[in-house]
């Protein structure tokens, strides 16, 4: 499998705090990597470094063969290849659902309004909220908003999708509708990095699980072997609390 994202000895500090400690990892094309670990272990920071929402102190990050630059138009271009979905939906509150999904397409991808609208409706259909297109985000449930956020990210035709605890802010009855969309994407071959506490999703969709603790990747395994046979005490301890 050809690597789409390569992290090589990445280090990141917040002041004195060493948040990412010499992280090396690869994500293959079409691979679904689920990142788990206790709160504060560096999972969000890891995601955010992949599209340079956070700078790094040392090491390199390569996306599809191109090193991620620190700034500039090249960074903007590479970043637009990385779709990101956060815990807190982050939809544009003063735009309709449809506008949320067309905006990046017209501004960044330079598509015509008509083309962007067609693509947006196709994606809203696919995530099951096409009938909400004319509404404002606040009129939608959390699960619907998160599905719009996924459609918005997909509209940019990203090479990879990053999900940072996409269901953590949702009421329990809405979690499945978001996870189902994500499983669908995984089955279609989308390259994905997913930070989640939904171990059921990891078992269903992950090709590989990364277990992080204290800024390090402590364990890396296929979901079956990670869940049934974790090898480190920290992973065993973590799993005993979440399973
Ligand atoms: P996780 O997503 O696994 O819960 P994070 O990546 O959010 O972990 O955080 C890792 C560590 O870095 C935590 O100790 C957190 O408090 C700290 N941290 C995260 N973001 C910042 C920031 N912007 N400034 C200072 N410390 C931060
Ligand atoms: Mg986090």
Automatic annotation (TrEMBL):
Record keywords, A-Z: Amino-acid transport, ATP-binding, Cell membrane, Membrane, Nucleotide-binding, Transport
Lineage top rank: taxon: Bacteria
SUPFAM superfamilies: P-loop containing nucleoside triphosphate hydrolases
Compartment annotation: Cell membrane
TM region(s), chain numbering: none
UniProt key word Endoplasmic reticulum: no
A GO MF label: ATP binding
Main location: membrane
Gene3D superfamilies to which the protein is assigned, alphabetical: P-loop containing nucleotide triphosphate hydrolases (3.40.50.300)
Domain ABC transporter: from-to ranges: 5-239
Membrane topology note: Peripheral membrane protein
Alphabetized PANTHER family for the sequence: AMINO ACID IMPORT ATP-BINDING PROTEIN, GLUTAMATE_ASPARTATE IMPORT ATP-BINDING PROTEIN GLTL
Family: Belongs to the ABC transporter superfamily.
Protein name: Glutamate transport system ATP-binding protein
Species assigned in the record: Antiquaquibacter oligotrophicus
């Amino acid at each position: 499998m050809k690597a789409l994202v390569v992290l090589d000895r990445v280090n990141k500090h917040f002041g004195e705090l060493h948040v990412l400690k010499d992280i090396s990892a690869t994500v293959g094309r079409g691979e679904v990597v689920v990142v788990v670990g206790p709160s504060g272990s560096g999972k969000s920071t890891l995601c955010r470094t992949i599209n340079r929402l956070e700078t790094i102190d040392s090491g390199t990050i390569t996306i599809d063969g191109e090193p991620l630059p620190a700034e500039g138009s090249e960074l903007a271009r590479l970043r637009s290849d990385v779709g990101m979905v956060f815990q807190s939906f982050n939809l544009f509150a003063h735009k309709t659902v449809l506008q949320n999904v067309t905006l990046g397409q017209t501004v960044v991808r330079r598509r015509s309004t008509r083309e962007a609208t067609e693509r947006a409706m196709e994606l809203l259909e696919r995530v099951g909220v096409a009938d909400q297109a004319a509404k404002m985000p606040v009129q939608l449930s959390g699960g619907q908003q998160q599905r719009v956020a996924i459609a918005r990210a997909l509209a940019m035709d990203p090479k990879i999708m990053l999900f940072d605890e996409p269901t953590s802010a949702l009421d329990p009855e809405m979690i499945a509708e978001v996870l189902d969309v994500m499983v669908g994407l995984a089955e279609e071959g989308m390259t994905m990095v997913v930070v989640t506490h939904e171990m059921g999703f990891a078992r269903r969709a992950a090709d590989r699980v990364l277990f992080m603790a204290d800024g390090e990747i402590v364990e890396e395994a296929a979901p079956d072997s990670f869940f049934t046979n974790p090898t480190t005490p920290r992973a065993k301890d973590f799993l005993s609390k979440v399973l």
